[in-house]
Write a structure and sequence with these properties.
Length: 415
């Protein structure tokens, strides 16, 4: 009787731990990035009553006889199945679709599926809840390239900056009237930006060539660049065919447009595209249709691209600048991770070393921008587990009661 009571007590202890795990799962049913845990029990060692015997030539074998001595906790492990990705509409909220963890902290690193990011007062990308700094790579300030083979570090983003783009290409369009006489001109204004984003203005004058005596208008036009005050220069020719379409252009003197004080001056190189011009009998309408320079713009947004987690600054002038990339880590055995606080994990003895790299590479999942991963707790399963734990506890307590009653009967035999 004593043995059955201790066996039941081991079950009571296990069912209590089972309820502890279930209650924690249910408490975190709405915790972003939370991974539910499960309990596995194991039979404790059994007392050998009889080892049994092997069969002989005249008699069959006898099986061993053993009495179990209760139940023991096998292990409690996290369930790393994918949680539902919930849209937040906030670009700096990140989720992982597939394997992988965000990396927080340069020392005593934490790994988490919870990716609500924000910038702190110093421009560091951090986890919004814990304040731990997000790890990744910064872009090379000269080339703008990101080397994901380098060790990860804090991501620091400077948002109080401006950026401009000097003009390198100008496209002209419209019509140079075929009715223009020899030596007739058509002047258009051209605005370009220097390296500091300052708008510089120049003029392009087209002059129709003539041939013979008296001269007859040809399909070749001279062009020349000038400015007021003087400083801009450049010249060449544009040739049209009998259908009024450009067949070629030349540059006789290089295009030189002075920049503002402190900028790269002259603005170079500038290429002019004449291929969209026509020479028809319609009125003159030649003009600049586009140019790729931009004035100085301020940072308006920090954008994290989906899939790869590349961080870019968006400017008010339409420019964008790649400044960094969020890293992910994966483990060969994620169930070997140790649970920490703030819905994070620590590397464990049996988790393997973190394999750090860019998202969507090396078996790591893709980053989903504007999404957070919800808890993977299955409430229906947890309530079922709660009932199982409750009934298991109830049955074990009934065994103790029954054993007590039998012991009482033994005591009463003396009467």
């Amino acid at each position: 009787m004593i043995r059955s009571m201790f066996t039941a007590i081991s079950s009571l202890s296990l069912q209590q731990k089972y309820l502890d795990v279930v209650s924690n799962n249910l408490a975190n049913a709405n915790t972003m990035g939370f991974k539910a845990s499960r309990v596995l029990s194991q039979d404790q060692f059994s007392q050998m009553m009889s080892p049994g015997s092997a069969p002989t030539a005249t008699q069959g074998g006898v099986n061993p006889t053993q009495v179990g001595l209760g139940v023991n906790l096998g292990y409690i492990s996290a369930n790393f199945t994918q949680g539902v990705l919930q849209s937040t509409g906030r670009n700096m909220d990140l989720g992982v679709q597939g394997d992988g963890f965000f990396i927080y902290g340069n020392t005593n690193r934490r790994y988490s599926r919870e990716g609500s990011m924000s910038l702190d007062a110093e421009g560091n990308l951090v986890n919004s809840a814990s304040g731990l700094r997000t790890q990744g790579w910064m872009a090379d300030p000269t080339t703008g390239l990101i080397d994901t083979d380098l060790p990860v570090d804090d991501i620091n983003i400077v948002t109080d900056k401006t950026l401009a783009q000097a003009t390198t290409n100008v496209i002209l369009g419209g019509n140079l009237s075929a009715s223009t006489a020899v030596a007739g001109t058509n002047t258009i204004s051209m605005g370009v930006y220097d390296s500091l984003g300052s708008l510089r203005t120049a003029s392009v004058t087209f002059t129709r060539q003539g041939a013979g005596a008296p001269p007859v208008a040809t399909n070749v036009w001279d062009w020349a660049i000038s400015s007021t005050p003087a400083g801009a220069s450049g010249s060449g020719t544009v040739t049209f065919d009998a259908d009024g379409q450009v067949t070629g252009s030349t540059i006789g003197a290089a295009i030189t447009i002075p920049g503002s004080a402190g900028s790269t001056s002259p603005i170079n190189p500038i290429a002019i595209d004449f291929t969209k011009l026509t020479q028809l009998t319609a009125a003159n309408s030649a003009a600049v249709t586009s140019q790729d320079g931009l004035p100085a713009g301020n940072v308006t947004d920090v954008y994290i691209s989906p899939n790869d987690g590349i961080i870019s600054l968006m400017y008010s002038n339409g420019m964008s600048e790649q400044v960094g990339q969020v890293a992910l880590a994966r483990f060969s055995n994620p169930t070997g991770l140790i649970k920490g606080d703030d819905t994070s994990f620590l590397a464990g003895l049996n988790s393997g070393v973190p394999q750090i790299g860019a998202a969507s590479t090396g078996g790591r999942g893709a980053i989903a921008a504007s999404y957070l991963e919800a808890s993977n707790v299955d409430m229906a399963q947890e309530f079922t587990n709660m009932i199982l734990a409750q009934r298991g506890f109830q049955a074990s307590s009934r065994v103790i009661t029954t054993s007590d009653e039998i012991l009482q009967e033994l005591v009463n035999l003396k009467r």
